[in-house]
Design goal:
320 residues, alpha/beta, 12 helices, 13 strands, 40% helix, binds ligand 48F
Length: 320
């Protein structure tokens, strides 16, 4: 309604309505501006009784406007993303960097995140001290996302980053680049066609958590990025349910190794690869599949892994 409104009220911020001349306000055009009882009752302009009632009646329907807009906008977004180029599972740091990069390269990219808040393991920093460390090699990625960092005076080439700024900055960057994030959605299964992954089976996280007997929906995709972190859930599903060999020395998931930060930072990037036709792994998921080391709250490897995953996926899609 606001978008169609041609009366002068549209030009006034809500708090200025009080000083607007009454004749410029009409119940038909301005209900979206006068849409709360508070506003109507606090206006100093004098409506006659009938006019005021009409505004109030229209204001009562604001709830309906809000509900209908959300349902139709979300449905359009979901419909638009039921068939995509790339589906990223997990909105952790590696998944978000990959999603932004892929979306910028013009690939239709969707992210499914189990939790309500995207950002994965970033938010809590180290042991809930909400700071993380990023090294020089990944500084350009921070700069690209306009995420600030502070040089550590005693360790040249290393920076601290506020973990809330990192999680929210990565999320904002991915969304602004055009990737669509569906939060509170869990990937519970995979779909195959011609010995290649063809889709993801999704459901609401509360449905999954409450173990409600509700059938899922399926999203068709050319490529999947397993960015699920430590559990590497997608590749676990691929190995367990499709019973296929993965592109690892044993054909199976090798399992994550213990903390060894310096090595882990390198293996996170090196292990970022395609492990089954159409299924790639980044971040800790890649380390779990390939037997890499964990590294704790240093995030350069995660960010660079996202970049590498995006490059590999783009290359693979071009060949299809
Ligand atoms: O674990 P996570 O942050 O992924 P990452 O990119 O980064 C790892 C670091 O955070 C940290 C570390 C650095 O030192 O080791 O752990 O590898 O984020 C993974 C995201 O995937 C979601 C999960 O909720 C988390 O936000 N996720 C996991 N399984 C699923 C999922 C699933 N089946 N469906 C949807 N989302």
């Amino acid at each position: 309604m606001g978008a169609l409104c041609t009366c002068k009220a549209e030009k006034y911020p809500l708090n200025l309505l009080r000083i607007m001349p009454a004749k410029e306000i009409t119940p038909e055009c301005c209900a979206s501006y006068l849409a709360t009882r508070w506003t109507v009752s606090s206006l100093s302009v004098s409506f006659d009784r009938a006019r005021k009632d009409k505004v109030l009646v229209m204001a009562e329907h604001l709830e309906n406007i809000v509900s209908a807009a959300i349902v139709s906008s979300f449905s359009a977004k979901l419909l638009e993303n039921l068939n995509v180029d790339v589906a990223v599972v997990g909105a952790g740091p590696s998944g978000l960097v990959a999603a932004k990069t892929l979306a910028e390269r013009g690939l239709k990219t969707v992210v499914f995140e189990r939790k309500l808040a995207p950002g994965g393991g970033v938010w809590g920093g180290g042991m809930l001290f909400n700071e993380v460390v990023v090294q020089e090699e990944a500084k350009a990625i921070l700069d690209e996302f306009k995420i600030r960092s502070v040089a550590i005076p005693t360790a040249p080439g290393y920076y601290t980053v506020d973990s809330v700024e990192l999680a929210s900055g990565l999320t904002f960057g991915a969304v602004q680049a055009g990737a669509k994030i569906f939060n509170a959605v869990s990937v519970e299964d995979v779909a195959f066609k011609d010995e290649r992954i063809s889709g993801l089976v999704i459901n609401w996280t509360p449905v999954e958590r409450l173990q409600m007997h509700v059938d899922p929906l399926v999203v068709i995709t050319k490529a999947v990025l397993d960015g699920t972190g430590h559990p590497c859930e997608v590749l676990n599903l691929v190995q367990r349910k499709a019973r296929v060999r993965l592109n690892t020395p044993t054909g199976e998931i090798l399992g994550e190794r213990p903390m060894q930060a310096a090595t882990g930072e390198i293996t996170t990037v090196e292990n970022t690869a395609e492990y089954y036709p159409g299924v790639f792994a980044s971040g800790m998921s890649a380390n779990n599949v390939m037997g890499g080391y964990r590294m704790g709250p240093i995030f350069g490897g995660m960010l660079r892994s996202g970049k590498r995953a995006a490059a590999l996926i783009e290359e693979a899609i071009k060949k299809l």
